[in-house]
C-alpha cells in the first residue's frame, strides 16, 4: 500500500515539480562540494575521504530524482493501459481535397468514364449475330457517354450528341425535349448540371451491359450503372466529399431494331423502359431536372460525412432503391 501511495503522489505526477527537484538536487550537490572544500583540513588523506563522500551524496540525490522520473513514467504508462480505460476513437477526417474529390466515397475505386462499364463479348442472340451484338454494345456505350459524360450535355444541357445516335423516328420524337430548356423530363435522359461547375476530374462509373432478345428484329440491351460527379466548391461550402459528389444510378433499356422487319425510319437505336435513383445532391435543383451538389441547397446545413455506408446503394447488381433521397 505504501508503494502504491508513493507512485500516485500528486508531486510525482507533476512534470514541472520533477524538473525543479532535479535542478535543486544538482545545485545542492554543488553547494555541498564547495562548502566541504572551504572547511577541509590540511591533511590530504582526510580531504580525499570527505570529497569522495560529497560526491557520493550528490550522485545519490541525482539518482533519486532519476528513479522518481522513471517511476512516474511507468505509472503513467500503466494508467494508459488500464483495462477499464476506453480506447480513444480515431479522429474523423474532414475537409475536401479538390484534386482527389472521389477519395473517401464509394466511387474511389471506380474507373473513369465509360471504362467503368463492363461489356461482355458478343454472341448470337435471337436474330442478331455475335458481330451485330458487339456493334449494339458499342452503340449503347456511345449513347451512355453522350448522355452522362458528353461535353455539350454537361456544359450546355444540349442533347444533340445523343440525338445523333438515334433512329430517325426516335430522334424526331425526342429532339424538342432534348434540345429544349431544362426540365425534369429532360433530366431523366441527360445529366444536366446547370450553373454548377464540375471539377476537371472525370466522372467515375461502374456497371455493366447485358443483351437479350426482344420482338422479332429487336435486340434489347439493358444498362445497369452508377455515375459519380465531382463539383467545385469553396472550403466553407463542403466539409467532406459527400458534400460535392452526388451519385446517379440508372437502369435503362436500349432497343435496337433491324429493317426489315421494321421500317427504315425505325431501324437503329431507341430508348426503352428506364428508371434512375439520385442521392447526395441538392434537392431544390433536382426538382427542376438539374444535378447539383448538396451544398447548393442554401437553406439546408452542410451534411458532411455520411452516417452510414452507402456502398450497396450504388451497386448495379442490387435492386434500384424505390425513391430518391429528396422524397
Describe this structure in words.
This protein has 327 residues and is of the alpha+beta class. The protein contains 9 helices and 6 strands, in the order αααββαααααββββα. It has helices at 2-7, 15-39, 44-80, 130-148, 151-156, 160-163, 168-178, 184-189, 283-286; strands spanning 111-112, 117-118, 204-213, 218-228, 247-257, 268-279. Strands 1, 2, 3, 4, 5 and 6 form a 6-stranded mixed β-sheet that branches.
User: Helix and strand succession?
Assistant: HHHEEHHHHHEEEEH
Secondary structural class: alpha+beta
Number of helices: 9
Q: Which sheet architecture does the biggest sheet show? A: 6 strands, mixed
- Please bin the fraction of helical residues: 25-40%
Beta-strand fraction estimate: 5-15%
What's the Cα radius of gyration?
Answer: 37 Å
Summarize the structure in short.
With 327 residues, this protein is an alpha+beta fold. It is 36% helix and 15% strand. The protein is elongated.
Features:
327 residues, alpha+beta, 6-stranded mixed β-sheet, 9 helices, 6 strands
Blueprint of the fold:
Blueprint lengths: L1 H6 L7 H25 L4 H37 L30 E2 L4 E2 L11 H19 L2 H6 L3 H4 L4 H11 L5 H6 L14 E10 L4 E11 L18 E11 L10 E12 L3 H4 L41
Parallel strand pairs: 2-3
Antiparallel strand pairs: 1-3, 3-4, 4-5, 5-6
